[in-house]
Amino acid sequence: MKIEDLFSVKDQVAVVTGAASGLGLAFTEALSENGATVVMMDRDTAALEAESARLLSLGWRVEGVPLDVTDRPGMDRAFDGVMARHGKIDTVFANAGIDPGPGYVAPDRSHRPPENALENYEDARWDKVIDINLNGVFTTLKAAARHMKVHQRGQIVITTSIAAIAVEGGIGMAYMAAKAGAAHLMRCAALELARYNIRVNAIAPGMFVTNIGGGWMRDPQAQAAMGRHVPLGRVAHPDELKGLALFLASQASSYATGAQFVIDGAQSIGTAD
Ligand SMILES: NC(=O)c1ccc[n+]([C@@H]2O[C@H](COP(=O)([O-])OP(=O)(O)OC[C@H]3O[C@@H](n4cnc5c(N)ncnc54)[C@H](O)[C@@H]3O)[C@@H](O)[C@H]2O)c1
């Protein structure tokens, strides 16, 4: 078999949540450029319209479906719609997520902002992050499993984070708890769905320049500062996840399930010189 056939996603039907920006947009591009039909789901309707129109103009097959992943009945309707229009769902990226701001240590590590201390951490902030970054993944997984079980095949990929692996004072505790929960949810689903030939894996990115957290990482000074914590010496571009996305969405990864794939320039394993 030729290597390009092994990684083929041609004629797949894929769903990507949080598809209008950043990593979800990169997953969408990787699949649609290579012949898949990608249903882009996002709550940002303006960005969804703009990005889906841009990809359509390139001749790629995409559809934009406005959806907030915290809307459980809306999620079921959206997935039912995909099935009604396309008759199958091969691959789902449960990717939508937010960053609620820093943890108990300020980003420059100069002090501890009192409002981020455990005893002051706002309940509403906790609830919002858990609702999107953990409950949203659960809801997406449920909808994916319901349809994939009918065809006894499929691939699900969850975007976690290196925050699921190591605790870091500069990141909000709700974000870390949600990502660690999503990683374990991935493992639970992988075990349960293995007998139906449905594979469930996670991508755990390090620092990628996207619009997350209001887009603070687009600032070159912030990039340089963050890059100093990474053994590879820099933050990453979302395109650098496209190869892994194709691997996990295709038969190239046919024996991979229940695994979390870390792409972080070695940030999570230690500090270099
Ligand atoms: N950028 C990084 O360095 C990084 C690192 C680790 C993990 N991640 C994870 O990657 C995923 C994507 O983030 P990104 O960096 O591409 O950010 P981004 O802000 O560029 O893109 C996120 C997209 O998700 C959408 N979204 C947010 N909440 C939603 C909701 N409730 N329903 C539907 N859509 C929603 C946004 O509108 C946006 O289009 C997130 O789960 C994030 O936690 C990012």
Automatic annotation (TrEMBL):
Pfam families the record matches: adh_short_C2
Identification of the protein by name: NAD(P)-dependent dehydrogenase (Short-subunit alcohol dehydrogenase family)
Protein family (similarity comment): Belongs to the short-chain dehydrogenases/reductases (SDR) family.
Keywords from the UniProt entry: Membrane, Oxidoreductase, Transmembrane, Transmembrane helix
Molecular function GO terms recorded: oxidoreductase activity, acting on NAD(P)H, oxygen as acceptor
Lineage, opening ranks: Bacteria, Pseudomonadati, Pseudomonadota, Betaproteobacteria, Burkholderiales
Cleavable signal peptide: none
Transmembrane feature ranges: 156-178
